[in-house]
Amino acid sequence: MPESSETPAPICRRCGQCCQSGGPALHLADLPLVRSGTISRAHLFTLRPGETVNENVTGRLIVLEREMVKIAGREQSQACLFHDARRHACRIHVSRPVECRALFCEDTSAVQALYRRDRLTRADIISTGGGLWELTRFHDRAFPAGAAAHLARQAATGHTAARERLAEMARAEGAFRRTFQEKTGVPRKELDFYFGRSIARICAQFGVRLTP
Fold it and tell me: Among the four 19, 157, 163, 195, which has the fewest Cβ within 10 Å?
């Protein structure tokens, strides 16, 4: 029989490189995973507009125009917290998010096609008629990520007034988070979902170290 001319289907080698590069952003199609508890709020963090982030797919640094909800990394690592490095496996492989299903490192066209489409936001997960949502919106207004990033760029060049303003913001935001947790009982691991990365963590990207 003549040999088939069809190209063999690509096969994942389970090297884990994509998982080590960071967790995926979530999309509307992933909402059932959040509602079922497969992916909880403690597993997530929010990147807010104005933050400088590294895109997993393109490898470029960009300034976000719209918020993004992602699966968090491990402590002291950006590796997806669901990745089991020892077994080279995903702990929620059967229920993995759509970006993980689409991504193949040797041909990223599928994940690039959906990457910026229908991204999940906090408003899709939090009831927008409740107190948690109001506090989330207050935090965004009081401690805007874009303003912090702008001041951090200035502080990194030695601008004293910018650094002082950032230090004030970091202290106030730290107090807000602590009070929020004390009053609501929300677990600490969920704070980065509700409020995104702290002002101190945003500034650390630019080499500006602050104490919240």
Answer: 157
